[in-house]
Design a protein that fits this description.
The protein is an alpha/beta fold. The protein has nine helices and six strands. The strands form two sheets. It has a four-stranded mixed sheet with strand order 3-1-2-5, with no helix packed on it. It has a two-stranded parallel ribbon with strand order 4-6. Helix 3 (about 140-165) packs parallel to helix 5, helix 4 runs antiparallel to helix 8 and helix 5 (about 190-220) runs antiparallel to helix 6. It is globular.
């Protein structure tokens, strides 16, 4: 990265790798290295492989370790520019552009994360009407707790099984299970059927939320992965705020049962996108399923 004293590079000297400081004047931080694209910060500095080069006395590459010996070889100029024609190369970070197919997959993952995360907050404003219609005042907390409890149990199990058998099938299954739970909840004739439907929703939520992040790691290079995982996390943040607002509006306008039915179209779109465009190369991993531990 650009520092007042220069950037850290690596020089291969007699079979060893020694850190050197490239002294670039602060007023010229973007000066090219032999036309190789300049100094590109990557968070740790610029890595330059310079085989058997020596440094000039005024500027250039200066050892930052005490007692470091300058290697013999072609000279480096004093202002940090490598002389052309010396065979020295510098590789800049490659710009990443998401393919059209991966953009569609990312949209499908965001939709799956959206329906899973908003279901945790959208029901709260409707609880007084739900309890008034179905009863269960003494146990109303189970409407939220059932989904979160099952989701917490499922997350590590799905993580292990998706490593062994592949993520695409589990993600699609999570979407389908979530929608089945939404239908059960929306049609619930009594309080405990609603709780059961929420538990089924939790089974889908515990599959969708972790796998949305994991699949990003499968399709996006590590260098850019944080950006897209951050966008996915932003979906969760938005639904935490928008969920109660949407829940109150839908309950007043159409009734509390539509809190569960409203997620179905979004889920169907997500199933279509993931089923159509998500293609992951998977090699089954060997491992033992700890059935007793799961139970």
């Amino acid at each position: 990265s650009h520092l007042d004293q220069g950037v850290v590079v690596t020089v291969d000297a007699e079979g060893g790798r020694t850190p050197y400081c490239l002294a670039v004047p602060p007023r010229e931080p973007d000066r090219d290295l032999a036309g190789a694209g300049g100094l590109h910060p990557d968070g740790r500095g610029v890595a330059v492989d310079v085989p058997h080069h020596r440094s000039q006395d005024e500027g250039g590459l200066h050892p930052v370790q005490s007692g470091g010996r300058r290697p013999e070889g072609p000279a480096l100029t004093s202002i940090g520019c490598l002389r052309p024609g010396e065979g020295t190369t510098m590789t800049a970070p490659t710009a990443y552009t998401m393919t059209a197919e991966h953009r569609r997959v990312f949209l499908g993952l965001m939709l799956g994360m959206f329906v899973a995360s908003i279901s945790q907050t959208i029901v709260g404003p409707a609880m007084p009407r739900i309890v008034a219609e179905l009863g269960g005042m003494d146990h109303y907390a189970w409407v939220a707790t059932a989904a979160m409890l099952v989701s917490a149990i499922v997350v590590p199990i799905v993580g292990k099984l998706s490593d062994m058998f592949g993520r695409r099938e589990f993600y699609l299954g999570g979407l389908v299970v979530f929608m089945v739970g939404s239908v059960i909840s929306g049609l619930a004739p009594n309080f405990w059927t609603l709780v059961a439907g929420r538990a089924v929703q939790g089974l889908g939520m515990g599959t969708l939320m972790p796998l949305s992040q994991t699949i990003i790691g499968d399709i996006i290079p590590a260098r850019q992965r944080g950006k897209y995982q951050g966008l996915m996390g932003a979906v969760f943040g938005v639904t935490s705020v928008a969920g109660p607002i949407a829940g109150g509006f839908i309950t007043d306008a159409w009734g509390w049962r539509w809190l569960f039915f409203a997620a179905l179209p979004v889920g169907v779109v997500a199933v279509f996108i993931i089923g159509r465009f998500l293609r992951l190369d998977h090699e089954p991993t060997r491992g033992r399923i700890d059935v007793l531990g799961i139970v």
